[in-house]
């Protein structure tokens, strides 16, 4: 009979509090990522970078050696933006959240860019972002297809 009753036992208060805290952390991360992605979609990439990336951020592109520091990574991203004439559109294909501590987000993007000669192409990328204190401290970028014109 006791095995039967165990099937219907309620979780302990400590388990419920831990689950509630985990859900709260995930919802907070979701809200932060939505704000970051909204800035990016508005073309406010520099603002997004300044607000949501830590000074000691480490970013790695397609398995290449990681680049440490906000300043170095900012210069690299701004260099890319200067090579193109503009971003015509940026569409979010999917977003997911998780990680052992609910501190990881992944966003899949389709970004249509244009070069100075007027040629357009869509690049696809997935950003895997590890968060601490509402800022990204580690990011891995996975790019699909040719990135250069």
3D structure, described in words:
With 149 residues, the protein is an alpha+beta fold. It has one domain (2-144): Roll (Nuclear Transport Factor 2, Chain: A). It is 38% helix and 39% strand. The chain is built from 4 helices and 6 strands. The chain has a 6-stranded mixed beta sheet. The longest helix has 29 residues, at 13-41. It is elongated, with a radius of gyration of 20 Å. The termini are far apart.
Which geometry do the CA atoms define? elongated
For the sheet with most strands, the description reads: 6 strands, mixed
Helical content class: 25-40%
Q: What topology, given as strand order, has the largest sheet?
A: 2-1-6-5-4-3
Question: The CATH topology, please?
Answer: Nuclear Transport Factor 2, Chain: A
How are the elements arranged and paired?
Elements: H1 2-7, H2 13-41, H3 45-52, E1 53-61, E2 67-68, H4 70-83, E3 86-98, E4 104-114, E5 120-132, E6 135-144
Parallel strand pairs: 1-6
Antiparallel strand pairs: 1-2, 3-4, 4-5, 5-6
Helix pairs in contact: 2-3
List keywords for this structure.
4 helices, 6-stranded mixed β-sheet, 149 residues, Nuclear Transport Factor 2, Chain: A, alpha+beta
Describe the structure concisely for a colleague.
About 40% of the residues lie in helices and about 40% in strands. It starts with a helix and ends in a 5-residue tail after the last strand.
């Amino acid at each position: 009979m006791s095995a039967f009753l165990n099937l219907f036992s309620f979780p302990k208060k400590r388990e419920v509090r831990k689950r509630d805290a985990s859900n709260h952390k995930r919802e907070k991360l979701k809200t932060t990522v939505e704000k970051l992605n909204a800035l990016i979609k508005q073309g406010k990439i520099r603002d997004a970078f300044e607000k949501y990336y830590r000074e000691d951020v480490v970013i790695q592109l397609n398995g290449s050696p990681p680049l440490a520091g906000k300043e170095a990574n900012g210069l690299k991203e701004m260099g890319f933006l200067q090579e193109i004439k503009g971003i015509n559109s940026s569409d979010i294909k999917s977003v997911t959240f998780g990680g052992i501590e609910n501190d990881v987000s992944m966003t899949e993007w389709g970004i249509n860019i244009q070069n100075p000669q007027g040629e357009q192409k869509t690049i696809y990328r997935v950003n895997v972002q590890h968060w601490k204190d509402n800022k990204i401290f580690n990011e891995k970028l996975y790019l699909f297809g040719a990135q250069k014109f």
